[in-house]
Write a structure and sequence with these properties.
248 residues, alpha/beta, seven-stranded parallel beta sheet, 9 helices, 44% helix
């Protein structure tokens, strides 16, 4: 059976590393992006140059109509979906909860939580044996922040990832008999561009002293965990979390 994967927010960081590794392991890859078309298309070109199959599709996965169109396009261009990685997510400038307004909170929640629900819904409709599918796997990219809270910096982001954890547990049990496994990874301090969105591009170097391993992680290390959870080697794992936080 052809392996087809959709990775949301895949133009950079963990998503891009996951796309490269998935392609190397035989997946036809959909690189979803929001704004950075050039980066997504460059990633697709790299994958194709090494013999892989990939497409770049722009869509705001927080918007229901765009999610439906995205999944329909994957159906048409790559075939039946077998794997989904809910990776798209944002954070905003570091601040305390008593400084946050509703607009910020809603941006965080719709991007980090609603998107996962919408994409999971469309994936289940295609993968579930209840709907005539042949099964599949979903991996949600959560964060160690869901356990730690990110006090004084990103409590809203941490809370959104806590919701992703709950989605992972609930959905995994809901579709366990329908051929779908649902798991999550919880990265800690990883060297990606997302920290610049919070106003501190070098954040990992500042905080790595608090990590037992005394270093930040690399996007490729997270990608390997994601691909393991998607693989047949993890065939009895569902509702499972892999913490990638250097012991923190």
């Amino acid at each position: 059976m052809k392996k087809v994967i959709l990775i949301t927010g895949a133009s950079r960081g963990i998503g891009a590393a996951t796309a490269r590794l998935a392609a190397a392991r035989g997946y036809a890859v959909c690189v979803n992006y929001l704004k950075n078309r050039a980066a997504a298309e460059a990633l697709v070109a790299d994958i194709e140059a090494t013999g892989g199959q990939a497409i770049a599709l722009g869509a705001d996965v927080a918007e229901e109509a765009q999610v439906v169109e995205l999944f329909n396009s994957v159906d048409a261009q790559l075939g039946t979906l077998t794997a989904l990685v809910n990776n798209a997510g944002i954070l905003e400038t570091q601040m305390r909860v008593d400084e946050m307004d509703a607009a910020r909170l809603n941006r965080i929640l719709v991007t980090n939580v609603t998107s996962c629900f919408l994409c999971a819904r469309e994936a289940v409709r295609r993968m579930s044996t209840r709907h005539g599918g042949s099964g599949g796997a979903i991996v949600n990219v959560s964060s160690a922040a869901a356990r730690l809270g990110s006090a004084g910096e990103y409590v809203d982001y941490a809370a959104s990832k806590g919701a992703v954890d709950t989605l992972t547990i609930g959905l995994s049990r809901e579709v366990a008999e329908e051929g779908i496994r649902v798991n999550a990874v919880r990265p800690g301090f990883i060297y990606t561009d997302i920290h610049a969105s919070g106003g501190e591009p070098a954040r990992v170097d500042r905080v790595k002293q608090f990590v037992p391993m005394k270093r930040g992680g690399q996007a490729g290390e997270v990608a390997h965990a994601i691909l393991w959870l998607l693989s047949d080697e993890a065939s009895y794992a569902t509702g499972t979390f892999i913490d990638l936080a250097g012991g923190r």
